[in-house]
């Protein structure tokens, strides 16, 4: 870690010298290299903390309000009631229902055939001559 930080800071100093020589792009690099060094220190710090906390159990989360007051005050807010059963799933449409579109009806019959014949290939579908 110390080697990487030293290299980043040295590269930043080198870019400052280049910027003084007239290379304007080096001003940006002179700012980036110390940021890279800071990032290395940050990651090292986080990893050390994670390693030290490895054996400790997770702390229990602090209890919070069920619903924050500012959320409950919004218009249209309906509180959740766990005693109300979940809405039942809608009824499935009948197989082969005709809605008037012949292409849609043919496609739905094709899908019904595929579902009823899982081992068959789509090329084996009996097409009606019409």
Which term fits the overall shape? Answer: elongated
Strand content: under 5%
Low-confidence stretches: none
Let me know the average pLDDT: 79
Largest sheet descriptor = none
What is the N-to-C order of secondary-structure elements (H for helix, E for strand)?
HHHH
Structural class, please?
mainly alpha
**Count of alpha and pi helical runs:** 4
How would you characterize this protein structure?
This protein is 51% helix and 0% strand. The protein is mainly α. It is built from 4 helices and no strands.
Which terms summarize this structure?
single chain, 130 residues, mainly alpha, 4 helices, 0% strand, elongated
Please give the structural blueprint.
Elements (H helix, E strand, L loop, with lengths): L1 H19 L4 H28 L16 H4 L29 H15 L14
Helix pairs in contact: 1-2
Offer a quick outline of the entry.
The protein is mainly alpha-helical and 130 residues long.
